[in-house]
Input
Amino acid sequence: MADSILEHFGELPDPRRQAGRRHYLSDLLTIAICAVICGADDFESMAEFGRSKWEWFKEYLKLPHGIPSHDTFRRVIAALEPEAFERCFVSWMNALAGGSRAQVIPIDGKTLRRSFNRASNKAAVHMVSAWAAENELVFGQLATDAKSNEITAIPRLLELLDLRGATVTIDAEGCQKNIARKIVDQGGDYVLALKGNQPTMFEEVQLFLDDAINRGDKGTALEFHQSVEGDHGRIETRRLWWTPEVDWFQDRSQWAGLGSFAVVERERAAGGQTTCERHYFISSHDQCGAEFMAHAIRSHWRVENSLHWCLDVSFGEDQCRVRIGHAPENLSRLRRIALSLLKRETKVCKLGIKNKRLRAGWDHHYLLRVLGL
Output
């Protein structure tokens, strides 16, 4: 088991002084990952999990001084350098996903709400994650800089990813010229939501697409795609219009690879009331068609339920009050590792994430399967 962890985390620098090390970093990380998979949500529960599974762990790990204490878990995880940890994490997730080619990769942010510290005037940590929509794996994540926003973290996160052949989707905050350029330079394509933070472009694209729709496709190459979904008494109809006609846009040269525009109209009917709203997008795709564009945009909207909701409901992320050092960010990374591994296992256990965590804690054979061993 430790060999599998070492394959991807072997280059992770140990923050402890050589003379003070009583536990191997690989042993500590292996126990921490297994513990989080099986329901641990703090350092005390990690240590208790290790002690309760001592007989099993000693079959796979060195453990020269037994199971680390909760203080050791706290000190080490709080001291691990986040971006070095992230590079190892990305390596593992890429290996699990078989690379990112042809993937839709939504990038979205989530605040760790209880990670703020009033005593030290430390704001809550905000994590930006890259989600592989097809595999339901977290490809990578980084925290935003203090007193900053996602715009600074997204380019750093993109640098860690292999974007060749992938389509990156980002909401309106990430609709920036430098981000579009970075994606294209790394061999990927983009679909970026367009709102008021690019006011001139938004107004021009909105006017162009709305006018083309009202004219009934006369004089403009518009492709159309529609889907209808319903549950719990709600019916949602999504209509998408896509066009590769971008030559008319005067500032197109400032947006690397700009190839098309799209608009999604979401009509929701529930409780006898109907609402309708339109969302606008720009993309580097110039031949993908309306159906693929609808798939890419829908994949981005699914992040809230597939990733953020699972982290809050199944892992209690918003209730975690750990605040020391890099611990909030690194614990968040451990949760995303656990979630990715649990979502990847679909053959043996068909239950939800919460019950998969319980089974992994009860059944060593299932835990090994979740770990891919």
